[in-house]
């Protein structure tokens, strides 16, 4: 060996070579156990993979770079959270009604981040491709980080306002939170490829903008800069997740033509399940934000009809069409937020956030955004509710509603072509009838009835006596089942009975800020 050879520096690996060494180079074929026994779950769905090395992370991110990037983001995030707390930023928000969007996010969305963390860890363990395992591991860590930063950020509000004290407990029990909970449990109890299609593609790529944009933009419009910051901190991760979701679906479709009908069935199913889940977001956008960003209808047109339409045009070359019932979702875009807020006005005394009838200027905004439906179909209902409240006759529904077996939302949605008639579908399985809010939910059930007959429906569980604190005796004289259920939920409704105008949040806000919210109604942006 010459002196020059001895002293010449080792050439540095390029990004692509380094990524290959840090992913594919870490795997091996098993010897004393077969690969099929070690990875039993990545074949039973019928998906055929011929070359795992074709799985590409478009960002080619390695773990050393990942920790560096995330560490830098954490420093910036917690510096801003600290400044927000020291400056009492919780009193700089536009209106205390905004706090109810945080309650919905903390109990309905943040626990989903933790569920995604668990789901990707399980998916990564189930896939025999090394690149896929590394990608799932990084996304699992991302999702855990998102859950932690959200809990840490919003925990500051818990020092001053009600309903934020026990989000994980509520997520596992409260009736309306079974809607997001059932979505992720459905995905996590599927196979690894269906899980990734459900979360990485249908939720992260197709629908995530309809979730994060309203909450984060809504926070910015209403002065909650701490929530905006954790949204921005997560957004670079979400961009990576969205890209990965699309690449995963393309990878599966390119591996074998037999995969196409399986993926199409999953796309149909998870589009509809995700769309129904976003009903809570639609309601939040149109009714719960004191200063609104845009209407649900506008968001749906922008983020699904335009962006989603372009996506599925691109996927058409693989044989994938638009999701089934997408046209129904577009028909409902002018109705679902109003129907959902009407449900919560009926049952606000059993939720961890307050409800209210929209104010006159807010109804004017709704009429402008929904000129074909609001004034004729929904304004009379909310004006009646407001009048009843003025007379001290605020009405709540004390009976329990029928729930859809799939989405688990009360059966209050209307027929796609008739907004004055409740949509009702049913199927029979092993001699039992099951009820659905739509053709989409019925199709999901009919595809896997043996799975969905096991759904944990809150109304059924309450009637069976399974939603009372341990030791409760419902036979005692004067037993109040609603009070017992709320105790089981860890919700202390108190004197306000779910109504914002008599809530401790409103009273505390007025005391701390010196504002009288009754003197001047906040204006809509």
UniProtKB/TrEMBL annotation:
Residues 414-456 form the YHS domain. The keyword Metal-binding does not apply. GO terms for molecular function: monooxygenase activity. Keywords: Monooxygenase, Oxidoreductase. Gene3D superfamilies: Ribonucleotide Reductase, subunit A (1.10.620.20). Pfam families: Phenol_Hydrox, YHS. InterPro entries: Ferritin-like_SF, Phenol_Hydrox, RNR-like, YHS_dom. This is YHS domain-containing protein.
